[in-house]
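Sample 3 of the quickstart, ligand zinc ion:
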Amino acid sequence: MGTLHRFFGLLLGLSLPLVGWASIEVELVSSFTIPNEWVGKLTAGTPIPHLALIPSGGELHGYTISASDARALAKAKVIVGINPQLEPWLADWAKANQREKDLLWLSPAPLPSGSHLWIVPAEVKTMMRRLKKGLDAAGIETSEGNLVQALKEIESVEKDVWDTFAPLLPHERQFVTQHPGLEKYAEAFGLKVAGSILESASAESADPSARHYAELLKSIRTQKVRVILCDEGQNPAAAQQLGKDASLPPPTALTFEYLQKRGTPGDTWASMMRLNARKLAEALKQP
Ligand SMILES: [Zn+2]
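Result:
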């Protein structure tokens, strides 16, 4: 990630006009683009600046904090993350810098298999409420109207995603993922994760073991799985190989990990959710 890229990412994350940027102290720093958008929704109508550390296109798992991240974190009034297991690098930084009291985890309870809770609407509603409470407690201005509107939008996305998957028959509802984490999403929408290529979400670029790969191939055949997913922007080699070995179509690339650059489809949580659902439903629907 180039410095210039990062610089523009920083600008886009701010809710203020660019004029006077250099003097702005960013008060709210989130781990990645999705919680940063939620912060923006709750503080809409206020001039409170906020930014995401990991820019669009960056991956959450195995992230390491850069020098400019550390500077932004040091100045932040409130730091927002999803869960210490998902963002261990943020938990470590807060501990080392005695900033744990300023770190707001939106879903602090222990997680099963690194679950991507930010794509599960019921969880997002809970996180949005927790975020508002946390910001209010820190003296950051939010509004009840903003929260109500955000919750309404989550419900409307949930309904649209349900409708998108509605035409799928029971045998069309299963898929293999690149890494664990989509189980709760699948559960929420009547789908099923039949297996994952990688055994842990934190090893996103690693290769699966030979034994795990053989077992996965076997279960694809016995369960008649037709769809393999990969993460857009990540190396799809293992997913492509698995597709070939299982005589399946090439993997379907989805982006659940970040929002797209502003002005492109998937640049908001709502459009990211709808876009992924459409792509996934299209891949799952058998002719
Ligand atoms: Zn992930």
